[in-house]
Amino acid sequence: MFAILGRYCGGIEHELEDLVHDVLLRALLRWEQLRELDEDAQRAWAGRVAHNCFLDRCRRKGSESSRMDELLRLYELSEQQDGSWEPELWEFVNPEDLLQAVERLSSPKLRRTFELFLQGRSYAEIGKDTGEKPGTVGARLTRARRELRELLREPAERRRRERRR
């Protein structure tokens, strides 16, 4: 596996070890299913998983890099400010506001979907619970977030105005 995956990592040893570790971990988690496959099918599975793990790592690195760039840009902006920096509107939303806003969502389906999401459930799990497809769950969450933004805007702006005084 090291020889095959070495090409993905361009000879960077710690990257290679991490990638092999990820593949072996996934294999262990699916051991009962994998051991019933013949050797060729196991190799194909491992190759596909290795490729996907490598792509995930590339995406994560790109994402981490862009987040770091954004943080550096924000830091530079804050250093350039002359004390006139103003907190974001969301910083004026408190938990009670959020709970009240969730209760005021336009439909019980939106409310239930959002509450399940807040419990940390995946789209698939929410879909099972509500009888909807994951795509419908995603659309409902988008709509719920849009409504919550509108419901929370006024109390947050009011608090920001009060803070300025």
How many DSSP helices?
A: 8
Number of domains: 2
Instruction: Please state roughly what percent of the residues sit in beta strands, choosing from under 5%, 5-15%, 15-25%, 25-35%, 35-45% or over 45%.
Output: under 5%
Range of helix content: over 70%
Keywords: DNA-binding, Sigma factor, Transcription, Transcription regulation
Domain RNA polymerase sigma factor 70 region 4 type: 97-148
Family: Belongs to the sigma-70 factor family. ECF subfamily.
InterPro entries: RNA_pol_sigma-70-like, RNA_pol_sigma-70_dom, RNA_pol_sigma70_r2, RNA_pol_sigma70_r4_t2, RNA_pol_sigma_r2, RNA_pol_sigma_r3/r4-like, WH-like_DNA-bd_sf
Key phrases:
single chain; 165 residues; mainly alpha; 2 domains; flat
Write up what this structure looks like.
Pfam families: Sigma70_r2, Sigma70_r4_2. InterPro entries: RNA_pol_sigma-70-like, RNA_pol_sigma-70_dom, RNA_pol_sigma70_r2, RNA_pol_sigma70_r4_t2, RNA_pol_sigma_r2, RNA_pol_sigma_r3/r4-like, WH-like_DNA-bd_sf. Keywords: DNA-binding, Sigma factor, Transcription, Transcription regulation. It contains eight helices and no strands. With 165 residues, it is mainly alpha-helical. The protein folds into two domains: 79 residues; 76 residues, Arc Repressor Mutant, subunit A.
Structure summarized in a few sentences:
The protein folds into two domains: 79 residues; 76 residues, Arc Repressor Mutant, subunit A. Helices cover 79% and strands 0% of the residues.
